[in-house]
Amino acid sequence: MTYSIQESRTDEVLRISGLKIYYKGDLGLVKAVDGVSLSINRGSSLAIVGESGSGKTTLGHAIMRLLPYNAVIAGGEIIFNGRNVLSLSKEELRKLRGYRLTMVFQEPSAALNPVFKIGSFLKDVLKKGKGASMSESELKEEMISLLRKVRIPSPEEVLNKYPHELSGGMKQRVLIAAAIANGPDLMIADEPTSALDVSVQAQILKLLDELRAKMGLSLIFITHNLGVAAQVSDQIAVMYAGKIMELAPTSSIFETPKHPYTSMLLKTIPTIRRELKKEGLAAIPGSLPDLTSPPPGCRFHPRCPMAMEDCRKVDPEPIEVEKGHFVSCLLYRDKA
Ligand SMILES: Nc1ncnc2c1ncn2[C@@H]1O[C@H](COP(=O)(O)OP(=O)(O)O)[C@@H](O)[C@H]1O
Ligand SMILES: [Mg+2]
What we know:
Strand order of the largest sheet: 6-7-8-3-9-10-12-11
Largest sheet: 8 strands, mixed
Helix content: 25-40%
Shape: globular
Distance between the termini: 12 Å
CATH topology of the largest domain: Rossmann fold
Order of helices and strands: EEEHEEHEHHHHHEHEHEEHHHEE
Number of domains: 2
Bound molecules: adenosine-5'-diphosphate, magnesium ion
CATH superfamily of the largest domain: P-loop containing nucleotide triphosphate hydrolases
Oligomer: single chain
């Protein structure tokens, strides 16, 4: 079963079906992504939310085909613009990555080479794509226009700076500029604001949302924070232990959450009301299961306050409880 909000498939940028990514480890196979299906339409944004270790980064890396050597593609398909990314050759992947398909990472400092000025870095990115036949002055103009798009003040000065001369927020803006330089269809942003101050975080989220709307870009936004996800996404997929537990429009996740795990995650978001009442934050009791031998049945059952006998035995299939609102939980099986 595949999730899709709209009936029309023509506008689909990405469709993942039954994806399984395992890692070979000393204790056996780590089932990091275990049967994930989702789809994204052109110009829309999907947040993937879950606790640390739930498989979000693995999913992002699989789409980019940036998996480490010990990863095994154990099943499924990743159809991007009509082609299965999992069966492309290295040469075909090179043509895709950084052009049609781009990624922004959590740590901006680690993604920029300290010995190159911002201008050299961006020129290199452009020359591999859109700027291949541009003159030096055209390249400079294009770089300045890119830095303006990501709202960097004094772009000419910034081109002449080294990464260490910029703040974390500015570095992340430069990396976003690089990610949009060659006009991608899909950008994956993996916790892009987690290393930044809260005020800078909000500006970067606003920028990503603005770029998506202006450029018709699709965005996959990976975060452990539901509150952050709400600011940039049309849809939210809640991931737990390698599986999607619930996928729905952002407003439905907040207003009518169905999965017990989603409800518990919502209680972990800080609110002013809770602070005033000194209620503090709810933590979800227990921890993620060992992914080399995940619990049988529903993977969340050992931590679920609503767990029933069958939850230990039956792995729940996604059920569409309302249009575009999918939940994988036996509580809803009479709605299937
Ligand atoms: N290269 C690797 N080798 C073995 N296990 C890994 C590797 N990368 C991630 N994992 C494991 O896969 C699971 C999912 O990790 P990850 O995708 O990074 O989750 P998230 O991004 O949600 O924190 C975790 O149990 C993690 O320890
Ligand atoms: Mg991660």
